[in-house]
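Lecture notes, part 5. Sequence design as translation. It can be helpful to think of inverse folding as translation between two languages: the language of shapes and the language of residues. The source text, in structure tokens, appears below.
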């Protein structure tokens, strides 16, 4: 607990607010990241096959 509070003090209020927002919406944001990553992989595979 002491380590977490020390890191929050060193990070400052803006980074702490950003981290709190991420923790509150973690499931939604992680889903968006995974979907964008999957779309990027499929896009790269599709463009490599059509250009050859």
């Amino acid at each position: 607990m002491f380590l977490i509070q020390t890191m929050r003090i060193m990070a400052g209020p803006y980074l702490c607010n950003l981290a709190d927002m991420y923790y509150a919406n973690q499931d939604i944001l992680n889903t968006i990241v995974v979907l964008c990553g999957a779309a990027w992989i499929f896009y790269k595979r599709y463009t490599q096959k059509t250009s050859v």
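The translated text above is only one of many valid answers, since several sequences can fold into similar shapes. Helices lie at 2-11, 13-24, 26-51.
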